[in-house]
Design goal:
Layout lengths: L1 E5 L5 E5 L5 E3 L10 H17 L17
Antiparallel strand pairs: 1-2, 2-3
């Protein structure tokens, strides 16, 4: 869905594979959590709304196993 690269200023940039849309990690606020996670979420939102694509796979909760 997107490529991750370093910008000339030293930051991390997420680039949409289907168009010229960019998300710069430096544009997000540390007080709201991880900047990289925020940028990835913004890119996923872009991909869904602009390109009609859903992420591949489905997150599955880990199940604790009991050993007898």
């Amino acid at each position: 869905m997107y490529n991750i690269s370093h910008s000339k200023s030293g930051g991390v940039v997420l680039e949409c594979k289907m168009c010229s849309h960019l998300e710069s990690v430096n544009e997000f606020d540390d007080r709201r959590g991880s900047r990289r996670t925020q940028a990835a979420q913004a890119m996923l939102t872009h991909t869904r709304s602009e390109h009609g694509r859903e992420p591949v796979g489905r997150p599955i909760a880990k199940v604790l196993e009991s050993w007898v």
